[in-house]
Design a protein that fits this description.
Elements lengths: L3 E3 L2 H9 L4 E3 L6 E5 L3 H11 L8 E3 L3 H5 L7 H10 L4 E6 L6 H4 L4 E5 L4 H9 L4 E2 L14 H8 L5 E3 L11 E6 L2 E6 L5 H8 L3 E2 L22 E4 L11 E5 L11 E4 L6 H16 L5 E4 L7 H13 L3
Parallel strand pairs: 1-8, 2-8, 4-6, 5-9, 10-11, 12-15, 13-14, 13-15
Antiparallel strand pairs: 2-3, 3-7, 4-7, 5-6, 9-10
Helix pairs in contact: 1-6, 9-10
Bound molecules: threonylcarbamoyladenylate and magnesium ion.
Threonylcarbamoyladenylate binds next to strand 5 and strand 6.
Length: 317
């Protein structure tokens, strides 16, 4: 069996109804989707990704109204955020109803919910009478996919279908927000930034987390990581060997000659850098390099989220 790549919504829906996994496009990254109410379908996701059981899945719905069906409480601030940012790159952690199995939430009483901003996937969700559990469609720990070819590269013999929705327009995973005493707490940075949340909610905190933090299971320090060693540039380097690569923010350092290079955004646009980061890491990683040097981007707005992914991809494995 080899995965088909196409845009047939009826076929994608039928496979999902049959309990199979299908890769779906979203504005952040591609997801590996299955029926979120079916524990054996969810179990397949873990198996295909080789994902540890303690790492909960995000559940995708077509609207805030649908989201409300799967939670026991939707705090005021969650509602404000949902109204402002859904559909969009924001996941809200809320207390789950019993219909969402523990296999999806890794035993937690909460569920991560999001309405993705992508026409095809929204249409698909509207066709189905169940929500879709979907982590990023990559083997656990590797760089997330931002187009159908990325998914095919790694999961071609493990899934029947990849719904092709073009390039992901955001390019890094959603912002994850939980609520502690009613106050929003950012567990994972993304395109919806702390400033944007503060603007509509007032109070907000960002909680850096790792595997040792029970509030954000699965947020490993090392993640989003290619096979090559990734090294963040902290000083001027003179030479990059032919078995090494260099990812620059806007341009290569003056006078540097590099065979394997990638520029995140020649125009210095942080959104473009977010959109292209994973494609750049994959492109260079496919060359079998031993090391990829990478520059951080300016730490402003979505830049902080891009840097978060760069740091995780460079963290000790
Ligand atoms: O942009 C995205 O969020 C993409 C697309 C496909 O929607 N999905 C994604 O899923 O990035 P994944 O599996 O790679 O990340 C899921 C993370 C978990 O590792 C965990 O940190 C957090 O979401 N999460 C999920 N449910 C949670 C819960 N109930 N409590 C705390 N964290 C949760
Ligand atoms: Mg992931």
């Amino acid at each position: 069996m080899q995965a088909l790549i196409d845009t047939d919504l009826d076929l994608a829906a039928q496979l999902l109804i049959d309990g199979q996994c299908v890769a779906i496009p979203t504005e952040t990254v591609y997801g590996l989707a299955a029926n979120a109410l079916d524990k054996s379908a969810a179990a397949q996701i873990f198996k295909i990704k080789d994902r540890p059981e303690f790492d909960p899945l995000i559940v995708h719905v077509d609207s805030m109204r649908s989201a409300m069906k799967w939670v026991t409480d939707f705090p005021d601030k969650a509602e404000v955020l949902a109204r402002r940012f859904w559909p969009g790159p924001l996941t809200l952690i809320l207390p789950k109803r019993k219909e969402i199995p523990y296999e999806v939430t890794s035993g937690l009483e909460t569920v991560g919910l999001r309405v993705p901003l992508h026409d095809l996937t929204l249409q698909l969700l509207e066709m189905l009478d169940f929500p879709l559990a979907a982590p990023s469609a990559n083997p656990f720990g590797y760089v997330s996919p931002t187009n159908a070819d990325h998914v095919f590269d790694q999961l071609r013999d493990k899934i029947p279908y990849i719904l092709d929705g073009g390039e992901s327009q955001i390019g890094i995973e959603s912002t994850i927000v939980g609520f502690e005493e009613g106050i929003p707490v950012i567990y994972r940075k993304g395109a919806v930034t702390e400033e944007m949340i503060a603007e509509v909610c007032g109070d907000v905190r960002t909680q850096d987390h790792s595997i040792s933090n029970p509030k954000a299971p699965g947020m490993l320090t090392s993640h989003y990581s290619p096979h090559a060693d990734v090294e963040i540039i902290t000083r001027f380097i003179r030479q990059v060997r032919d078995n090494e690569g260099y990812i620059a923010w806007k341009e290569l350092p003056k006078g540097m000659e590099v065979k394997n290079k990638f520029i995140l955004s020649p125009t210095g646009d942080l959104y473009e850098a977010a959109r292209r980061l994973y494609a750049g890491l994959r492109l260079l990683d496919r060359k079998g390099l031993v090391r990829i040097f990478i520059e951080l981007v300016p730490e402003a707005g979505i830049g902080a989220s891009v840097n978060d992914r760069i740091r995780r991809s460079a963290a000790e494995k």
